[in-house]
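F.,

This is the one I mentioned.
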């Protein structure tokens, strides 16, 4: 069975995602689709609009056959570790032949040479990266600038260098480097991103809108019917069900009381031990609290944000505060060992056949239920804690709702 792998968030699944799934199958001649999907918290340090089971259901309805969860340890990391975790998972299934991702370039000609040059981070590149960071650039912009300068110095012209200021090109580069780092035989393939950019908040097409634009419409109080042109009918039905059940929408604002409580009752010493808390940021956090005009998440971000501390960086740090992620749990040395398990969120009949094949070929244990996570799988414990915290932001949390990881079997389509 020829199988294509996708790395997704589906927050929520929209027509652009449907196009990507369909083109991935068509262009790679795939018989099956495996999606590695972030759980309740996402790569930019944000909570998902609705929970991972509802989003897995959307994915299956949209043409995916097997949905597996990217552990929160990787799902909320910068591009390097996000990509490394996702690619490691696809490799560990033992059944994925091709990795297909969207990009602004729509071609591998510039991305692949860059990946081969940068995957082991040569000393000259490291020096350039350090220089840009010392100049006050955020890590993503410093990385893009250092990569561009390094390739220029090696004689690569503008037409042979990827534009790493574009988010999907940058993430695609990290997918390619992850394939090289783990020595994977999975073949890469990329598809041109159509109609709407990744962060584009305006809607300029009659059928395609970014997830950012869709979420913005909903956050402004527009009814679900307003996004109907931009999402499949199944997505709209699932959204309506989750809205009615009080399980969605979820945003950072939903967590503000818990977050501010944790900050207000923490010492600088305790905060200093959390993942991402660098350069004395714990002191800046505590000093900001008394001056907040209102006890809201956006007010807190506004008080903290600088050129060095981007919104994404701050959201990831605040997520560590919310979830209690300690520095030692997510050190690069630990992340580099790769994922520890394959957590199945949902599957189709074709996905069930894939699972039967994986039971013979997979390189990691396959997890269908997270009840009593084994001590040797600590990242599974982080996932169940994240699910419990996420459920507390819903309208009517319950003990069973907090621990749906223990009770809810994979979604079947």
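My design for it:
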């Amino acid at each position: 069975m020829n199988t294509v792998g996708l790395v997704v968030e589906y927050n929520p699944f929209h027509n652009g995602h449907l196009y990507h799934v369909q083109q991935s199958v068509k262009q790679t001649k795939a018989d099956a689709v495996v999606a590695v999907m972030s759980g309740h918290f996402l790569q930019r340090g944000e909570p998902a609009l609705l929970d991972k089971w509802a989003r897995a259901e959307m994915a299956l309805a949209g043409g995916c056959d097997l949905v597996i969860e990217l552990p929160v340890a990787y799902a909320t990391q910068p591009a390097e570790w996000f990509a490394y975790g996702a690619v490691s998972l696809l490799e560990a299934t033992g059944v994925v032949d091709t990795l297909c991702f969207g990009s602004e370039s729509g071609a591998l000609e510039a991305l692949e040479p860059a990946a081969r040059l940068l995957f082991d981070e040569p000393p000259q590149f490291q020096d350039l990266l350090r220089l840009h960071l010392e100049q006050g650039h955020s890590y993503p912009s410093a990385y893009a600038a250092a990569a561009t300068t390094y390739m220029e110095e090696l004689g690569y012209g503008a037409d042979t260098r990827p534009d790493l200021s574009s988010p999907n090109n940058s993430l695609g580069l990290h997918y390619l480097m992850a394939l090289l780092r783990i020595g994977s035989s999975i073949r890469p393939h990329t598809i041109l991103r159509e109609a709407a950019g990744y962060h584009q908040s305006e809607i300029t097409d009659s059928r395609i809108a970014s997830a950012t634009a869709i979420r913005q419409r909903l956050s402004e109080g527009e009814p679900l019917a307003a996004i109907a042109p931009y999402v499949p009918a199944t997505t709209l039905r699932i959204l309506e069900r989750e809205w009615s059940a009080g399980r969605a929408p979820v945003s950072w604002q939903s967590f503000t009381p818990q977050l501010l409580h944790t900050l207000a009752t923490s010492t600088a010493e305790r905060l200093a031990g959390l993942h991402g808390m660098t350069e004395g940021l714990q002191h800046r956090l505590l000093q900001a609290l008394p001056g907040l005009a209102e006890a809201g998440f956006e007010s807190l971000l506004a008080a903290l944000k600088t050129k060095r501390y981007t919104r994404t960086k701050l959201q990831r740090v605040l997520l560590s505060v919310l979830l209690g992620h300690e520095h030692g749990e997510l050190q690069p040395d630990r992340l580099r060992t790769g994922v520890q398990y394959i957590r199945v969120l949902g599957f189709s009949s074709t996905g069930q056949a894939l699972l039967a094949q994986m039971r013979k070929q997979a390189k990691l244990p396959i997890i269908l239920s997270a009840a009593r996570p084994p001590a040797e799988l600590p990242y599974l414990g982080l996932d169940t804690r994240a699910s419990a915290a996420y459920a507390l932001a819903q309208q009517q949390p319950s003990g069973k709702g907090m621990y749906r990881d223990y009770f809810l079997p994979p979604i079947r389509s």
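DSSP finds 20 helices and eight strands in the chain.

Talk soon.
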